[in-house]
Amino acid sequence: MVFHALFNRRPAPEQTPRDTDADWEEIGRTHPYFGVLTDPRFRSENLTEESLADFFRSGEHQINHEAGLLRGRYPDFAPRSALDFGCGVGRLTRPLALMTGDAFGVDIAESMLAEARRQECEGATFGRDLPDRHFDWIVSLIVFQHIPPERGYPLLKALMARLAVGGFITLQFALYRDLRHASVPGGRIVMGEDLTTVSNIEALRDLAKGEMVMFDYDLTVICAILFNAGITDLELSHTDHGGFHGASIRGRRTA
């Protein structure tokens, strides 16, 4: 198998000694909105009707922006269904539902899903498991960077198996970090004078429950998964979250 050969060319992945699912359950229980966008206005004790409206408005702007980029590249872009992976409280699921009429938000944290369901929106459905169906547009932004890669790669493969032929993707991954973040838990790749693989996975053991961790991914593995899923027409753009560098990936399944 292609994937078997690919992964066997690399050292066995480190096993992350941390339950990141429990982290997100705790974040969803205490600060569900701040856990999605780390602006002090979105902490639970600071939430107002105005800040909550701003929070969801930011999701509308982001989805409209991403849709515009895809429409500029693919004039026939007109999805009738969408999957929001790592939906949290539904910041992106809601505008996806308004745009397509059929959006499914997936999240590992029941506390996040409970809050998402509390903010009703026609056409939006939420669940913990990936539905067994195909979607015209699969979206996952600022999500995989919080999932250990040894779990994230199989999840990405499972997601792409649910993309309809002719369907579109909008994904984002953290790929490397500045030297100032070399010791931050979860790091694999640091950009200095050259690319250096680092291992600070053990530092995860010392973090308190409910901390957000940033994990670096390998673009070679990401592309292999996408290409083998028939997504061969891709466009990448640089992202920088305070020294954690990555890529937004947009594309289409052609086969």
- The helix/strand class is alpha/beta
Determine the CATH superfamily. Answer: Vaccinia Virus protein VP39
In terms of DSSP E residues, the strand content is 15-25%
- Tell me the major beta sheet: 9 strands, mixed
N-to-C series of helices and strands: HHHEHEHEEHEEEHEE
Q: What's the quaternary structure here?
A: single chain
- Mean pLDDT across every amino acid position: 85
Number of helices in the DSSP assignment: 7
Distance between the termini: 19 Å
Number of domains: 1
From the 3D structure, determine the CATH topology.
Rossmann fold
Query: Which CATH class applies here?
Result: Alpha Beta
- Shape label: globular
**Low-confidence residue ranges:** 1-13
Helix content: 25-40%
Short summary:
With 255 residues, this protein is α/β, with parallel strands linked by helices. The chain is 32% helix and 23% strand. The chain has one domain (17-175, 210-252): Vaccinia Virus protein VP39 (Rossmann fold).
